[in-house]
Amino acid sequence: MDCDKCGADAVMHAAYSGLHLCADHLCRSVEERARHRIREDALLPDDATPEDPETWLVGLSGGKDSVVLTQILHDTFARDPRVELVALTIHEGIEGYRDASLEACLELTDELDIRHEVVTYAEEFDLEMDDVAEDDPENMAPCAYCGVFRRSLLSQYADEYDADKLLTGHNLDDEAQTALMNFFEGDIEQMAKHFDASLGAFEGGGETPARVRTDGPFVPRAKPLRDVPEKEVALYAQLQDLPAHITECPHASEAYRGEIQQLLFDMEENHPGTRHSILAGYEELAALAAQRYRGDDGPSVGECDRCGAATTRDVCRACALVEAVHAAEG
User: Does residue 14 fall inside a structural domain?
Assistant: First the structure.
């Protein structure tokens, strides 16, 4: 099949758009969508200057999504003194897994000459995910612990590095899966948190609403790849020969997400564009939920009694889980 743009050999068919794309035009398409999202979400404010640049913290795991995001951000802003990129890698303590992906992170950041910081669960929480998965004091999937710990450290270090934005490599499939999971579970509060932690809140005036919330305790988050399907992100990494570590975590066991993933796959096969529609509708619902939970009846945000992190509880979820793990260890 030929590329619809130039007639060269196509490497993929995007059923949701009907386009056949060659390697060059597929890569351009991924880059253009990421950059469009950056502009649409107004990540770089008009008042950013070389004298007072924005600091963007990028969660770099070494997987395909974060590696592609980091590469595109570098290519976009390498010559723009208004943006400083800082990559943060979190080592969970998973033998034979994270060490390999850390090597990919080191290779990429060295090649791009990006500041790279590494933090570990061992140093921060005095635990490793291999032990957490074995003890499982809360009878949860390992991913549930890891997700809480990871989000906690991303927020902590975004504050520590005085970051203006926190960027992650979530793709369209990730976001659509999360949307369906929250909807099926009827978790309105989580929808509100999803919206308020992201860029897209209704602030300011003028024809285009500002995309960054400035009245909350959290560093605003952005997901420039959220319009790009996972398959296209993976293909981009392959075509660009990026040092991505594409191996599933040995503790990955989110059975429910797996069911949602398969459901979305089937729906997308039969009804191309389903993922885009889900995400668009979800963001509308999340915006309404956020307005509700910002009102007088919404939960108040204070500080964790243990670590000082912003939380609606006396003790944040990360600290509570750390204590449960250590208690189980005796």
Answer: no
What is the signed CA dihedral for 32, 229, 157, 325, rounded to 10 degrees?
Answer: 180
Look up the domain containing 229 and give its range.
34-329
Contact between residue 166 and residue 57 where contact means Cβ atoms under 8 Å apart:
yes
Q: What is the pLDDT of residues 113-169, one digit of tens each?
A: 999 999 999 999 999 999 999 888 888 888 889 999 999 999 999 999 999 999 999
Overall number of domains in the chain: 1
For position 186, which CATH number holds? Answer: 3.40.50.620
pTM here?
0.90
Query: CA angle, 81 as apex, 211 and 158 as ends, to 5°?
Result: 55
Q: Say if 16 falls within a structural domain.
A: no
In a domain, 243, yes or no: yes
Token code pair at residue 180: 């369906």
Q: pLDDT for 35-89, tens place per residue?
A: 999 999 999 999 999 999 999 999 999 999 999 999 999 999 999 999 999 999 9
Task: State the amino acid at position 120 in one-letter form.
Answer: T
Please check whether residue 2 lies inside any domain of the structure: no
Query: How buried is 183 (Cβ within 10 angstroms: 0-12 exposed, 13-18 middle, 19+ buried)?
Result: middle
Structure confidence by residue, pLDDT tens digits, 3-39: 999 999 999 999 999 999 999 999 999 999 999 999 9
Q: What pLDDT shows up at residue 201? A: 36
Q: What is the mean pLDDT of residues 277-292?
A: 82
